[in-house]
Amino acid sequence: MPWTKKLLRVDLTNGTCESEPLNMDWAKMYLGQRGLATKYFVEECDPKVDPLSPENKLIFATGPLTGTAAPTSGRWSVITKGALTGAIACSNSGGFFGAELKNAGWDMVIFEGKSPNPVYLNINNEEAELKDASALWGRSVWDTEDMLREICGDDNIRCASIGQAGEAQALFAAVVNDKDRAAGRSGVGAVMGSKNLKSIACRGTVGVQVGDPMKFLQASGACVKILKENAVTGEGLPTYGTQVLMNVINEAGALPTHNGSDVQFDGASKIGAEAMAEPRETDGKPNLVSTGACFGCPISCQRVSQMDPNHFAVKGKPKYHGTSGGLEYEAAWALGCATGVSDLEALTYCNFICNEYGMDPISLGSTVGAAMELYKIGAITDNDTGGIALEFGSAEALCKICDQTGLGEGFGREIGLGSRRLCEKYGHPELSMTVKSQEFPAYDPRGIQGMGLTYATSNRGACHLRSYTVASEMLGIPEKTDPLTSDGKAGLVKIFQDLTAAVDSSGTCIFTTFALSADDIAPMVDADLEGEWTSDTLMEIGERIWNLERKFNCAAGFTGADDTLPQRLLKDAAKTGPAEGKVAELDKMLPEYYELRGWTSDGVPSNETISRLNL
Amino acid sequence: MQRALLIDPNTCTGCQQCEMACSYHHEGNFNPSKSRIRVFKFELEGRFVPYTCTQCDEAWCMHACPVDAISINPKTGAKEVSAEACVGCKVCTIACPFGTVNYNSETGKVDKCDLCGGDPDCVKACPTSALSFTYAEEAGMKKMRLWAKETDKGGQVENKAYTEEDIAGYLDQLS
After folding, report:
1. Nearest CB to A293: which of B14, B32, B47?
2. Which residues of chain A have a CB within 8 Å of the CB of B163?
3. pLDDT of residue B159
4. Of residues A151 and B149, more confidently modeled
5. What are the structural domains of chain A?
6. Could you write out the DSSP letters of every residue in A243-296?
7. Residues from chain A contacting residue B45 (CB–CB below 8 Å)
8. Are A111 and A197 in contact, with CB atoms under 8 Å apart?
9. Which of A380, A452, B37, B75 is the most exposed place for a label (fewest CB within 10 A)?
10. B99 Ramachandran zone, left/alpha/beta (phi>0; psi -120 to 50)
């Protein structure tokens, strides 16, 4: 069946694993993955819970399309209360782990409590067991996967693990699967580390059924065709990856640079998609070796990169001389533009170790950018950094501090606090480029106005993947809007947020929505599942999920006052480019957004909204 | 004229849609672990390589089978396993030098690629045309033509991907 209709409940405190039937009433209201796991989470967890305490829960969830032949069916999510944000966290990933979990017969795994000793969860179809991970503790994600294959005696297992950063509870630690795919944001890896849970090693051979196979294959085939024929999903992303955006966003004057001081970066062309494909001056080989796909994905946006073995970051370190997951746009932006570093090889190295040690490159890069500004104004000194000259543009300093952060050593422990806590600690909270304690990504709201509202209202803290209005404002999908105006963006953000929440709950990738509408996706879901599923059902589910997350955040202590942006974006106008003279016009969008959402003027879902959505 | 599966690893992205198509065709669900075609990832080299039975003429598996459970489908040339006749002795899995015949513990029989009766679903499911189904005797012609084009240049030809359109176009030229 599309839903396996069972979940695995793992009590880490007592070391038990129990199978439990899925709540099908909830499944029909929340679909799966992000939505359904959030429902379980809010029903079971106190919103005031300390994210790093045993009382927080951690859910790994698949969607009803995960593991099927639907295009991009490799998606899965981690749901918890975020260590970085203290808000609801849903961090999505691709790769192959999610499909394996589904193939083993599980819709989700709920972890509760805290193990007295390091453990990993071994899943082999219906069998699940917690096992001693003392030999794995202290190891990187890469080593952990290799060792688990050996320990389990099975090359086919798929793993989702934390590295040293998660063990050290760096607040933006990630859960990394298949060595270079990550549930990156909000510190879900720190929560995993706080529970002494090192990894899930999974093997699934049960297979995945769909409700009406012939109808399903027809609907999924139609979607594949649309994806292949679309300029973004059929050509742009396969050829250039997400890095296709680097030069585009720079030219639009929406590339936040040097900790958000500027909106254009003169080093952009050295670190974008074109630069990755060009032969290097040093050894004549390109950084980009090939492209890869996640499970079931016809888009294949993944970059596979290989570094110059003589680059200072990896010289004499053969571990980094093979290919591995290359730079995505957000990572290249954070590690490069936010820090002013335009050394493509250094950024590639930092991206490798984000995967190896298990860190979110967006939060890491942005926090290093903030530290560099603190260093520039003298708020931190060589005494604090242990002698690392944290100057904007220094590739050496970047590589060193990323190493330290991943390993939880030296000044890296301070970086591991994230930008908000770091800047507060050193007396300059205004220098933190965060919303709800999470670092905003690679789009400057002064140049792309819709992203201001996106960041301010994102339930998991600043994020581009809750409502990617860049699609409309820059790429004209589904229709072109002017990036420099805030008019009409409230409605746009709401639609994107609701559709994204539904897609994130289905088991497929949000990148499909560059080409597919809810009308294209609904027939796949309808053929897959019991009951009737239309685009309206999906949008309603998306809206329900959005409000459920919001309700949790309100109960956790967030208010409308947290729906804001760093002062720099609201007060300091862009100095160059098409957005010159503009600030982020959040005040013009937020009241309209609350109204469209059916929330009070303080940003609380009204009783009427709550009853309309059956919350 | 019989056709053969042509695999172009350069074009493969490792998405495993071929494995889902194969398992659906043969097992009725999406289950890569039961697929007769497998994609191998060589992670330090950034390469993805699909691999399955190449349908040898003098098939080791067929000759080794003590109960004649493997026979040639005269229409497709595929070596097919008769589930009725197979006794699950696994001798064929030892005989096959390529490892493409495998035991299925759920059925107690062996599984191998049967070209889906002459219209392989893996080819149809591949989103990058890394798999194609082409006339066996002409499978190498495309590469030959590319090399021929470069022969007098003294340089190496770029190992490019052949799309279905490339192959269709070439076959048109041949006919």
Report:
1. B14
2. none
3. 55
4. A151
5. 6-203 (3.60.9.10), 257-410 (1.10.569.10), 439-612 (1.10.599.10)
6. GGHHHHHHHTT---BTTTTBS--TTHHHHSHHHHHSBPTTTS-BSEEEEE--TT
7. 289, 322-323
8. yes
9. B75
10. left
Amino acid letter, residue B94: I
- At A429, phi and psi to the nearest 5? -60, -25
Q: Which two tokens stand for residue B58?
A: 């003098």
B35: closest CA of chain A, how far (Å): 11
Place of tokens 């305490």: A53
Give the E-state strand segments of A174-246 in sequence order. Answer: 175-177, 181-183, 197-203
User: Cα(A295)–Cα(A100) distance, rounded to whole angstroms?
Assistant: 10
For A104, nearest residue in chain B (alpha carbons): B31
Do A306 and B43 count as a contact with CB atoms less than 8 A apart? no
Instruction: Report all structural domains of chain B as residue ranges with CATH numbers, in order of start.
Output: 55-112 (3.30.70.20)
Predicted confidence band at B138 (pLDDT cuts at 50, 70, 90)? confident
A209–chain B Cβ distance below 8 A for any pair: yes
Report mean pLDDT in 10-residue bins for chain A, 615 residues.
92 98 97 98 98 98 98 98 98 98 98 98 98 98 98 97 98 98 98 98 97 96 97 96 97 98 98 97 96 97 98 97 97 98 98 98 98 98 98 98 98 98 98 98 98 98 98 96 98 98 98 97 96 96 98 98 98 98 98 98 97 97
The reply to whether residue B17 touches residue A322, judged by beta carbons under 8 angstroms, is no
Q: Which residues numbered 51-70 in B keep a CB inside 8 Å of some CB on A?
A: none
- Give the 3-state DSSP-derived string for A402-449, with helices as H, strands as E and coil as C: HHHHHHCCCCHHHHCCCHHHHHHHCCCHHHCCEECCEECCCCCCCCCH
Residues in chain A, overall count: 615
Asked if A156's CB is within 8 angstroms of B29's CB, the reply is: no
DSSP conformation class of A68: S
d(CA A177, CA A162) in angstroms, rounded, equals: 9
> Cβ distance A136 to A147 under 8 Å?
yes
- ipTM value: 0.95
Q: How far apart are CA A456 and CA A354, in angstroms?
A: 26
Tell whether A149 lies on the interface with B, counting CB pairs under 8 A: no
Contact between residue A88 and residue A96 where contact means Cβ atoms under 8 Å apart: no
- Find out whether A491 and A246 touch, Cβ atoms under 8 Å: no
A238: helix, coil or strand?
helix
